[in-house]
Fold each of these.
Amino acid sequence: MALLEVRDLSVVFERKGEQPFTAVDKVSFDVEPGQTVGLVGESGCGKSVTSLAIMGLLPRRGAKVSGSVRFEGANLLDLSDKEMRDRRGRDLGMVFQDPLTSLNPVIPIGLQVTEVLERHRDMPRKKAMVEAAELLDKVGIPDPTRRLSEYPHQLSGGMRQRALIAIALACRPRLLIADEPTTALDVTIQAQILALLKELVRDMGTALVMITHDLGVVAGLCDEVNVLYAGRVVEKAQRHELFGQPRHPYTYGLLSSIPRLDAPRGEKLVPIKGSVADNIPWTQGCAFAPRCPNALDVCVNVTPAQEDIGGGRLLRCHNPVRPEVAEEVTTA
Ligand SMILES: Nc1ncnc2c1ncn2[C@@H]1O[C@H](COP(=O)(O)OP(=O)(O)OP(=O)(O)O)[C@@H](O)[C@H]1O
Ligand SMILES: [Mg+2]
């Protein structure tokens, strides 16, 4: 059994006088200890809502969550708020997309790290201070001992993001969900944080869910990738398979729209046309059809089912990219 088993996870937002909105639609994936699973897709596809649902952080009112989220067999969706709070401190860690709203503004950074060390790892204060400074150093915060006494507003945005990562690492969670943890950071710090996460997974056997729209991050970190489009997983594959042979036209489009170092000079990048505003509802056909270069009549009339195409791969598409064409986009 996997450490985390997400099955048919759905989140429907309900607002008075408005149509219910399905942000996450029957998403399923597993994460083993020491494994990194990616959730990838463009803005608004449901990445953050998926992670908040797993962590039990969506408002109880207005957000209907269904399916199951089993952690060591127990369904987290059945736990009370208090039970979930205990779990979040002990087993589940999260790096949020927005660091300002998730740090406590009135508590110095150092105390926010030492608190975790004292509470969850039973460290005496003095030892916790030393370890906190080490953690800040590890995530690339210069002059960490001095920074310990500073408040979140005294740090730059990138620093705050790093402090948040330090707090998540301090818990030594068995499952860590990182939601765009490096998007706001410059590339050298980004590389440093990714290396740190890799180390955590390798040395502590942490199960990592990596949420990103950056395929470079996926290439460097993820074992398995779930490509999300409009709340549904449209393609699931091991990283090498996905990069070597993307079969969903959306995945193919994502890969064609990133620069390649080995591409001939002057070769144009091909962006995906349109925006999510063009989507059709999944209940009618394929949500991506209006933007899809491969679309057929069937795509706007019949909802594509998820198919197992072998080799642990899942695909939701009526007219996938042919394997020989898919191989031309290989980047990793
Ligand atoms: N509390 C809420 N009430 C209603 N709709 C919401 C709520 N939170 C998110 N949504 C909607 O759910 C969809 C998915 O949002 P989500 O934040 O998961 O996107 P995302 O994939 O994380 O995007 P980004 O890459 O921009 O972070 C969006 O259309 C968003 O507007
Ligand atoms: Mg998000």
Amino acid sequence: MKKIYRILLLALMIGVASGCTRQNNDVNNQKVQEQKEKSDDKSTEKSDSKKLYVSFYPIEYMAKEIAKDKIDVVNVMPKGATVHDWEPTAQDIKNLSDSKMLIVNGLGLEGWLEDVKSSLKNTEIVDSSTNIDKIKAEEEHEHDHDHEEHEHDHDHEEKEHGHDHEHHHHGEFDPHVWMSPKQARIQMKNVYEAIIKFDSENKDFYEKNYKELDKKFEELDKKYTEVLAPQKDKYFIVPHEAFGYLARDYEINQVPIEGINSDSEPDLNKMKELTNFAKSHKINTVFYEMGESDKIANSLAKEINAKTAGLSTIEAKTQDIEDGKDNYFSLLEKNLDAISQAK
Ligand SMILES: [Zn+2]
């Protein structure tokens, strides 16, 4: 997909549609619609302006726990989409541009945001990573570009348009703040403050919910500290570099198979390096990403005679989340169980 063209098209669409109310797809009714819009222009509030948009599941969870049924919280990412490579459609951007507020994780997690910001002039974008003690992202491996199936497409695109496609995802800092209950508490405070700005009339209601949620995460934070304290400085092999804040906050060390953007499958050298490291540290568990292939974890585990187990990066909204079997909080609890059992 030629992203640049799509963005240009979007800019055009949004430009044309600005000042209008809902778009009507029925071409035959266009005239009628235009007249209607003229008369409705000022009185009609766009329905999307009542919606509070969020960029991915953990923020959706926080916002819904705080707002409950008082606000229509909408996650821009569809079920199953993964946060590091998802990009909005034209309709998504149209919806976002009609909304009053969008809460994002920040720290470059939403790689698509820079490109669409100019289309969201009337949408307040709230960065939920404000006040977080950030971790600087390390440079990606130099073989980062060698694995992509569509490498050549990207190369052409870059040359033709002088646009650095591959690097638009890469922030200066590690974005995986939601993976640590300690950081999640800061994030939900930011979400709460955004919500009372979005709808100040129900402040007391939101405040009560926020305090309950914060208490729950405060206890989870304590549990992480207590459970992991005796395991201080241990290493755990993770599917991608998503556990930096968790590792820092609870004093353990992640050994990532893939990089911070989950887009650098290990080559033979990297696998050899991991094998040697795991053997010398007598690591007994290799974690794979729940909901994704465990192939690499399995082959590494076989090499070092270890077992595999799942961890969730909570980056996608899964069917189990949708069905209410899992949620952000329960997945953080499961992660702690899994990590604490690994040696
Ligand atoms: Zn990630």
Amino acid sequence: MTSVELSGVPQTLLWNLYHRAYEAGQPSPVLDDPKAIELVERIDHPFEETFGAVNPLLAQGQALRVRTFDDAVRDFLAAHPDGTVVTLAEGLETQFWRVDNGRATWLCVELPETAEVRRRLLPDEERRRTLARSALDLTWRDEVDPSRGVLVTAQGLLMYLRPPQVRQLIAGCAERFGGGALVFDAVPRWFSERTLRGDMRTQEGYTTPPMPWGLNAGELQNIRTAHPAIDDVRELPLPRGRGAYYGAVWPLLGKVPGLRNLRPTMTAIARFT
Ligand SMILES: C[S@@+](CC[C@H](N)C(=O)[O-])C[C@H]1O[C@@H](n2cnc3c(N)ncnc32)[C@H](O)[C@@H]1O
């Protein structure tokens, strides 16, 4: 067993891992992720005492969001099998083990305290390494070989940044990785505001850290104003899940303009010329 002590935003990676592993352990999971299940078994952390009992609906939603990111990476690797996938704020994501093609290069850019945990549990290997650096320190771009295509992912990161930082980070990717893309997720403004009021709390007393950046679905095209090289921004819908909510209600919410922001999360891709 390995002890993991994290707090604040880095601790949220444990919530994601816990929920992803829970869904992966269901009889007909929407995500196949044995590595996540293995990690939860290896980590000495009071998951349930910290976050409360798993809400199966949230766990499935988390896994479906992960599938959306996986599909975007698979599409990229199909077109650029020797390309580079840069995973900003990867936490203890196990995407490499789900989608790697045996040829691509993977670079994870993480805060030092999280990078230490990741390296301990998922040691670097020849084509996959972890850089201990804030994603806001754009010098990470110098570590990337752009010659065979670049896809940057930011899953569960941008909402924790301040709006000007989000803009600078997106612009920094667009400026350097022409022909590449950024896949990211966002929470709607009402959700962001609730976290800023500190009232996203579980019964066990876990409070979601503040998420200063909220983006409503109707504002997605504003992303294009961050840099002239951003030529296309579009939402990536979640794949259909099990049961009435993720099988019918969620897909419907995504299609009705007045209801789209009821969804607590949205995933999108910004492409660069
Ligand atoms: C919600 S977790 C997401 C982890 C992972 N992407 C996932 O979906 O499971 C938030 C992550 O953001 C990382 N993080 C926060 N601020 C960061 C920054 N400025 N640069 C890089 N990573 C950051 C934390 O260390 C943590 O791993």
